[in-house]
Amino acid sequence: MNSFKPLKVGEAPLIKWSLITLAVLLAMLLLLLPLVSIFQQAFVGGWERYIEHLSQPDSLHAIGLTLMVAALTVPINLVFGVMLAWSVTRFEFPGRKLLITLIDIPFAVSPVVAGLLYLLLYGNSGWLGAWLFEHDLQVMFAWPGILLVTIFVTCPFVARELIPLMQQQGASEEEAAVILGASWWQLFRRVTLPNIKWALIYGVILTNARAVGEFGAVAVVSGNIRGETNTLPLHVQLLYEDYQAEAAFASASLLALIALFTLMLKALVEWRQQRSLSANNNQQQSQSL
Amino acid sequence: MSIRLTNISKKFGQFQALSPLNLDIQEGEMIGLLGPSGSGKTTLLRIIAGLEGADSGHIHFGNRDVTQVHVRDRRVGFVFQNYALFRHMTVADNVAFGLEVIPKKQRPSVAEIQKRVSHLLEMVQLGHLAQRYPEQLSGGQKQRIALARALATQPEVLLLDEPFGALDAKVRKELRRWLRSLHDELKFTSVFVTHDQDEALELSDRVVVMSNGNIEQVNTPIELYAQPNSRFVFDFLGNVNRFEASWQQNRWTNGDAFLVPPEQAPLQQNGALYVRSHELALADKPNSQAHIPLTIVAITPVGAEVRVELAPIGWQSEELWEATFTHHHLQELGLQKGSVVYATPRTAYFFGEQGDGSPVRQSWPFLPPGSLAFDI
């Protein structure tokens, strides 16, 4: 090894260390401190109070509703995202570019606006809402409405992860599989799915994180009925407005835990991906030596 | 299995990728589709495979009309330009894929599949790599695995898209020979796409030369080289010098240079003369029939031959001229970089402006073939 290391461009020690210090400081102040204070506030009254807050019927219901909405949203957007990514990367059709742009609408539009649009469309006086009302189907101010807006808000995640990857991988492996006689399902299960597996898992993690945490769009369509249409984020807000700060922080800490868990999963997926890449490379190197 | 293409055409949007064309391929033949990029050769190959649909025409495999048959059911072997190996499967799984996707009732047993796979891997001499992943293989190894995978289902038609394009010269040569011997052994009908004329001439029973979505010429390599039927084929096969001439004072003229035709009657018109580099003699002074002055700009050994690059003096040529000699001849001639020489063709092909696009072969009998006409 050479002990002399030439300076890279921009690697003046003063600039380097002051930049790093500033970045770490800001990250602590803006990201870590609030997170720590959530848990600190949540546990102000000790473990028992914490459990007590969370095991109230309204809290339990909010937790259950949030998990249910996420559990329904994720598979729906998984299938939808794969279909969308497949169609725009494997087929040429008029309006393909437009469709790729459309995918980003939920990212571009404020969630509140999305909620309002759904309210207009599905509310009792809306186009679809009137028909639904006649048939006694309650969508707005009930869990189906919450599910609909959550799906809307989270639908780009899977597709956005898959599209660049599938574009880069190209269709030739799939063509090879079909020429070799694979049916559509064999092609998908044995060739496409293994190739997009990690990106798909990554997309699902992001979808789940957003589905659990969505506030704006859900707030508009849920009607905030305690114990009925309150998701965890809405519950936090309601508790806080009722001056039950400790209970609010207890629920908030649960959301923060889910977020931390998601980050861990994400890191794990990235690590697995890296490892499978480097494992192959190492093997290759040791064999070529 | 023989392949018959009738009236096949294809458009991509406004671009005419293939003009209606016909091609008959005999059973067991090895056909090279040769052409520059954009000539439609890959499109034609993909249409034969069924990866693209033709806009018109019919494809027959033997007596079976497969025009409407899905890719999956055409049962052809296809080797992709970038190999398209399944990246997450081992080499053995890649080769086994075609057998494992056969419907359960007709599928060979697991043991039988394993046996076939190891046989195929032995055949491509890569049995020791069975448990590797594609990204751990070299280009030549990937190519052979791709071939083993394509042959696993025992197709009667094998299609190869630029099979040796991404490989270095030595590996390419080995693989060409190996593919040729495999073809002779297994007797499948194969069609391959290439832009490399050496590859097409070396490997094919017949070469199909394509340009702009048309078939220019179909012939055996030897006949094709001896009788290119158009300027395009001549240019594309390469190693040819062009003399763009106007008919003046009973001779072909270009600036200060001229050439007197050996036969008079039908050729008294403007046109282009094509002279192969080994059919060019160089002398230190002009003669009554040919006055084509050139300067030697480079002398380069190329294998068994020496290539002499020549720049025109007092006349125009788009490209430098080339003449090839054996090392021995070159020594006898004593040619040196910078010397001025006069070229005389022994044989040339004349494409007249008013002709039908096919060449007229010209020989200058005053120069006995093989003589170098170098008066020292």
UniProtKB/TrEMBL annotation, chain A:
Domain ABC transmembrane type-1 as annotated: residue spans: 63-266
Superkingdom to which the source organism belongs: Bacteria
Cellular component aspect of the GO annotation: plasma membrane
A Pfam family assignment: BPD_transp_1
Gene Ontology MF terms in the entry: ABC-type sulfate transporter activity
Electron transport keyword on record: no
Topology in the lipid bilayer: Multi-pass membrane protein
InterPro entries with a match to the protein in the record: CysW_permease, MetI-like, MetI-like_sf, Sulph_transpt2
Key words of the record: Cell inner membrane, Cell membrane, Membrane, Sulfate transport, Transmembrane, Transmembrane helix, Transport
Annotated function: Part of the ABC transporter complex CysAWTP (TC 3.A.1.6.1) involved in sulfate/thiosulfate import. Probably responsible for the translocation of the substrate across the membrane.
Protein name: Sulfate transport system permease protein CysW
Protein's gene: cysW
TrEMBL record, chain B:
Pfam families per record: ABC_tran (PF00005), TOBE_3 (PF12857)
Keywords: ATP-binding, Cell membrane, Membrane, Nucleotide-binding, Sulfate transport, Translocase, Transport
Domain named ABC transporter: residues: 3-237
Keyword Translocase: yes
Highest rank taxon of the organism: Bacteria
NCBIfam families listed in its UniProt record: 3a0106s01
Protein name: TOBE-like domain-containing protein
SUPFAM superfamilies attached to this UniProt entry: MOP-like, P-loop containing nucleoside triphosphate hydrolases
UniProt entry tagged with the keyword Translocase: yes
